[in-house]
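During the reporting period the student researcher (J.K.) took over the structure-prediction task from the postdoctoral fellow and processed the backlog of single-chain submissions. One of the processed entries is reproduced below for the supervisory committee.
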Amino acid sequence: MVPGPGADRRAAPSDEAPAAGWAWVLLPVSWCAWLLAWLVPSLLLAPHIALPRPWMTAETAPAAALAAGALFLVVAWPFWPALAGRAGRVGGPGAARWIGLSVLEFVTLVALALPFGLVAWSVGGWTLEAGPTAAAVAGLGLFGLGLRVAAAGMAPAASRWLMLAATLACALPPALEYAAGETLGVGFPRVLEASPVVALVRVAAEGWPAGSWPEIARLWLWPGVGLVLALVGVLESRRRGRAAS
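J.K. obtained the following structure tokens:
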């Protein structure tokens, strides 16, 4: 169906920026506030508590910053365009520009996170494994981009289920590990490795992973899933476009 001469250009959201107006401003503000909130226990509260919990000590500040960043980039950032009403088709002529702006947005968020990381590392006394961490962050960005493209190409109801799946991918392995340790006295380290949050923290603390499963889980699993999701999003967007016409 060919749009009439008075058709609104907003009907082609793939030609627009992933976020616009107030939502574009809200994204970096929310990102910085989220990182700061995760650092508050170890940086501001722990020094004033006689016996702080293990996750509140200064040594855990780098892990807290990495976990906060991974959660946001997997659970919140991929679905941010919907907040600005720009989560439309990604299979049209403006798809390359849309994806390029998404990549630029990701790079901007990583740059904004660097000061928080420097503070966390200086307080925690960690030695940053720069190369492996950069590779893991890039892989996490590819996973988030795949989620974003898939969410943009799917119907709103399907994208909400995708957001739930992304949340479970981050939270379910650590929750299973903790529950098993508390109830059965055993752990499931191989399952724990499957969380993108855990994978990023382990790579930053331990460097390049040794062994086939740790290497797959920390460096290859989620980027591969991101590529598959991006392909699914593009194909679904084209299918919906043909159905609408």
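The committee noted the following: Confidence is low (pLDDT under 50) at residues 1-16.
J.K. will present the remaining backlog at the next meeting.
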